[in-house]
Amino acid sequence: MTPPASLPPPAATDARRNVGLLMAAQSLGGAAPPIIISLGGIVGQMLASNPSLATLPVSLYNLGLALSTIPAALLMRRLGRRAAYALGALLGSVSGLIAALGVLWGSFETFCVGTAMAGFYGACVQSYRFAASDAVPPPQRATVISRIMIGGLIAAVIGPQVVIWTRDAWPMAPFAGSFLGQAGLALLALPLLLMLRMPPPQASAVVGAARPLAVIARSPGFVVAVTAGIVSYGLMAFIMTAAPMAMVGCGHTVGEAALGIQWHVLAMFAPSFFTGHLIARFGKTAITACGLVLIGTSGLLALAGLELLHFWGSLILLGVGWNFGFIGATALVTDCYTAPERAKVQALNDFLVFGTVAVASFGSGRLLNTSGWETINGLMLPLIALVLALLGWLAWRNRRQSAAAAAP
After folding, report:
1. What does each C-alpha distance from 380 to 56, 212, 321, 383 come to in angstroms?
2. Which of 309, 355, 328 has its CA nearest to residue 141?
3. N or C: which end of the chain has fewer CB within 10 A?
4. Mean local confidence (pLDDT), 103-125
5. Which has the closest alpha carbon to 24: 188, 146, 176, 183?
6. What is the CA radius of gyration of the chain?
């Protein structure tokens, strides 16, 4: 990556180094969600006494992530990002061990504890994109966010392959080895995170006037950006959580379900090579809207049939739509705060997004059992229409403000 011209040479060198390390750490830390999501519901079906609780482990992961966003932000502010990220990787490893023990012991409760603990690591991994974007000038933020998300492309291969390679490591305890693999990947990320060159907490504190969080949260730009992020990520989690169970329920194999998740996660992150450039050319709002349209198209394809092609094609479109929608929404959020406000606004954004994801992932399991795969996909369309209307209104409002500012 070319060093930002507006930064002094040492800062530019550190920013480039940190982006590379965070991209690598993302490729390892980002492998945990595919493992948890592709297996959480299936293991839940094996261990839970109530079938409607099958997706609870996935929901607890997302809930743990949501509840950890604010504590993780406070730790980053007090200890620095490097120390908080290292702690997150350690907890990620412990969580994988606990989940594996839950499978070995046949304990649904222990398994749920392990997936919930993984949420703190997930909160740290999700903040890598903000850590990189904070170090570069505003025009380069969307590109840097995309660079970090490229690490997820590698994670899209690693996570499902770990599932396939290790799912039968213990014949009497299927999938326990996959969660041990999750623990090992978190340990591999630890030395990369310790190599980060981040400013110490006292040096990273920014002096200046900061608006109250309630004022920022009520601003139209923030409301629309967060709503777009919530719907993009929430719908993706809603469909992705139910998809492996729906595929197995329709006669497809666990391996085919895991490969479907792999294609989905590849589609989530592969566009990151050019998403930043598309945002620079067409604008954040247009790319976010494009992502939502693709998510809606994925639902229409899922409604067209239950063959492997329909499942995999829908998951691929869902992944690309998530990439455009989520990266675009994240870039919109970075326009809503100043330097003194960024920590609390970033934490609030992730809390709202991943809190919704937790509800969506749990609700998808219940809805799959009560109403079926078609209902899950049909429900997304009205939400997408609503957010597209909000994005259109925001674009119209911004054009009016720009025209008024330019008027003599």
Report:
1. 21, 34, 13, 5
2. 328
3. C
4. 94
5. 188
6. 20
Contact assessment for residue 380 and residue 232, using Cβ atoms and an 8 Å cutoff: no
Q: Which residues contact 83 (CB under 8 A, 6 or more apart)?
A: 75
CA dist., res. 277 & res. 280, Å (int) = 5
Place of tokens 């994005």: 391
**Can you give the residue ranges of every domain in the chain?**
11-198+212-406
How far is the CA of 119 from the CAs of 123, 124, 261, 274, in angstroms? 6, 9, 19, 29
The phi, psi pair for 349, rounded to 5°, reads: -60, -50
Identity (one letter) of the amino acid at 220?
P
CATH number for the segment(s) 11-198+212-406: 1.20.1250.20
Query: How far apart (Å, rounded) are the C-alpha atoms in residues 69 and 357?
Result: 13
pTM, rounded to two decimals: 0.73
Q: Residues for the chain: how many in total?
A: 408
d(C-alpha 67, C-alpha 71), whole Å:
8
Exposed, middle or buried: residue 236 (CB in 10 Å: 0-12, 13-18, 19+)? Answer: buried
Q: How many CB atoms lie within 10 A of CB 362?
A: 23
93 by Cβ neighbours in 10 Å (0-12 / 13-18 / 19+) ranks as buried
Scan for tokens 């980002």, then name that residue.
30
Query: Within 13 Å and on the Cβ side, how many CA atoms surround 228?
Result: 36
Least confident of 41-50, 66-75, 129-138, 297-306: 129-138
What's the half-sphere exposure (Cβ side, CA atoms, 13 Å) at 3? 12
Packing angle, helices 220-249 and 284-303, rounded to 10: 20
- Cβ burial, residue 9 (10 Å; 0-12/13-18/19+): exposed
Reference 189, options 95, 88, 115; nearest CA is: 88
**In angstroms, rounded to a whole number, what is the distance separating the alpha carbons of residues 143 and 132?**
10
Question: Both tokens of residue 362?
Answer: 């749990």
**Four-CA torsion 64, 70, 74, 75, nearest 10 degrees:** 20
Quickly list DSSP for 245-300.
Answer: HHHHHTT--HHHHHHHHHHHHHHHHTTHHHHHHHHHHH-HHHHHHHHHHHHHHHHH
Q: What is the per-residue pLDDT across 148-192, written as a single tens digit (0 to 9) for each?
A: 878 877 887 888 788 878 877 777 888 899 999 999 999 999 999
CB 111 within 8 A of CB 103: yes
* pLDDT tens by residue, 185-216: 999 999 999 998 876 665 444 555 778 888 99
The one-letter amino acid code at 161 reads: Q
